[in-house]
C-alpha cells in the first residue's frame, strides 16, 4: 500500500509543528538551516529533523480503516500521542495524527489531513513519541561538521593578528606559526 504522505510534500517542507506528550516544538527552515522557533529560537538538531522526515518518508501502511467516529475513538485519534503539522513552500498544510501504538505487532494508527481514512502503519523509526527539547536543540558550540572545516585561526589575547593558522591539506592539519 502507498505511503499516505507524498514524497513531493516531504521534499518541500519548510515548517514543522511537532507535538507529543512531552512537549510542543515549532521548527522553521531559514536559508536552508532548520531553526527551532518554539519554545525558544535556537539552531535545531539536524539529526532530529532527519529522523522526523525519514519517519514520514518511510511510513508503511499495513491496513486501511474507515474514518468513522467509533474507529477514531477506538484508535485513540481523538487524543493523539503525536501530532505533526507540515508546512510546504506552497503554504500547503498537512496534519498527521498518531493515535494508539500497539507494542504487540509494532504498529500505530494515523490520520492525514485531506485523506478520509485511518491507516494502520508500522511504528515510526526512532520512537518519535519520546522526543524532548534536548533532541531538538543543536547543543554544539560549532554546528559545522568537522569534515567541512578546511582552515581556522587561533588568536592570543587582544592581538588582531592570528597566533596560529591551521589548514587541512587533505591528509593532515598543518600549523603555520605567527602568520
Write the SSE topology:
Layout: H1 7-11, E1 13-20, E2 24-30, E3 33-38, E4 42-43, H2 46-57, E5 61-66, H3 69-74, E6 82-88, E7 93-102, E8 107-112, E9 117-122, H4 133-136, E10 151-155, E11 162-168, E12 173-177
Antiparallel strand pairs: 1-2, 1-6, 2-3, 3-4, 5-9, 6-7, 7-8, 8-9, 10-11, 11-12
Strand order of the largest sheet: 4-3-2-1-6-7-8-9-5
Radius of gyration: 22 Å
Shape: elongated
Low-confidence stretches: none
- The sequence of SSEs as H and E is HEEEEHEHEEEEHEEE
Oligomeric description of these chains: single chain
User: How many distinct helices?
Assistant: 4
Give the end-to-end Cα distance, rounded to a whole number of Å.
62 Å
Largest sheet: number of strands, sense, barrel closure: 9 strands, antiparallel
List keywords for this structure.
179 residues; alpha+beta; 9-stranded antiparallel beta sheet; 3-stranded antiparallel beta sheet; 4 helices; 15% helix; elongated
Commentary on this structure:
15% of the residues lie in helices and 42% in strands. It starts with 6 loop residues before the first helix and ends with a strand. A nine-stranded antiparallel beta sheet has the order 4-3-2-1-6-7-8-9-5. Strands 10-11-12 form a three-stranded antiparallel beta sheet, with no helix packed on it. The chain contains four helices and twelve strands; from the N terminus they run αββββαβαββββαβββ. With 179 residues, it is α+β, with helices and mostly antiparallel strands.
